[in-house]
Amino acid sequence: MSQQSNNCAIAVIGIDIGKNSFHVVGHDPRGAIVLRQKWSRGQVEARLANLPPCLIGMEACVGAHHLSRKLQLLGHNARLMPAKYVRPYSKGQKNDFRDAEAIAEAVQRPTMKFVATKTADQLDLQALHRVRERLVGQRTGIINQIRAFLLERGIAVRQGLRFLRAELPSILARQTDVLSPRMVHILEDLSADWRRLDARIEGLSEEIETLAHQNQHCERLMTVPGIGPIISSAMVAAIGTGDVFSKGRDFGAWLGLVPKQISTGDRTILGSISRRGNRYLRALFVQAAWVVLVKLGPKQWERYGLKSWIEAAKQRLHHNVLAIALANKLARIAWAVLHKGRAVTCGKTDAMASRPA
Fold first, then answer.
1. Can you tell me the mean pLDDT for 278-295?
2. Which of helix, strand or coil describes residue 59?
3. Which residues contact 275 (CB under 8 A, 6 or more apart)?
4. Exposure of 86 by Cβ count < 10 A (0-12 exposed, 13-18 middle, 19+ buried)?
5. Domain boundaries in the chain?
6. Which of the chain's termini has less CB crowding within 10 Å, N or C?
7. For 3-106, which CATH class?
8. pTM here?
9. Which range, of 178-182, 224-228, 306-310, averages the lowest pLDDT?
């Protein structure tokens, strides 16, 4: 069979993405393999541009969103899938061609869960959040190291970032009998690193806040109690308009804010939260729940229609469990706001019949 007739017979393609080489497996409408080749990165677009529109499957990994957008511009139906959902379709021992074949099999399943292709703006916003998250982790490590060095010299500082920031200069100035000159110099260097990280984190936070206020989806999300520029922009960067989820419950489950279920027969066994999906976004929603519980009072709860639910949950749930349950509720409200394009109206927590933003 000629190469041209092979191209006309291809209906589904699975691509196993690598750094420099891509392994490609193509199926005809009956499911038979008619293409099995290894392409370089530069060959992918050129070769697929000569094919008639077909269904193309890839695992959601580094570079997949960029390639997906390119293939969609060529007229193909490019779909991204989580790698763990592709794995059951792999037959035999692992190699790149078998991975591509498994991808081609998985993308045809009607019940497969797909990942929405991110735009360039979403990837830029996501990059800002990832850099900020890394810097916050580095700052936490420096703070913990400073505390550990002080405790080794018998100096204990009250828990909390602001207390250490306020007391550290006086400790370095007055504790010369406890701290050696070398240790003072080490702590001063760590303190300088801390200040540099503070400046970079503040700059990134301001940039994220500016972008959030320029985005109509983020503006609507910020009407949900406990959600500000950081959470709203992180959510938009992660899921766009939320079209990949059919309901808010699916979004909460994807975040890992629901109990892990191991049930069989008539027994329903629920454990701790599953912790699936986006770890960073899940942590932000838990922080939002604590803000609502600690910072907002009953008057604010009543304003948003949460008072009766929170007070009833307080009677039966531990405060940590309550925070997770409230985080799940806020996530479902946020998905409704994002997906339906409406801002929260005070007194309604379903965010369904709220005013247009």
1. 93
2. strand
3. 256, 282
4. buried
5. 3-106, 120-214, 216-340
6. N
7. alpha beta
8. 0.85
9. 178-182
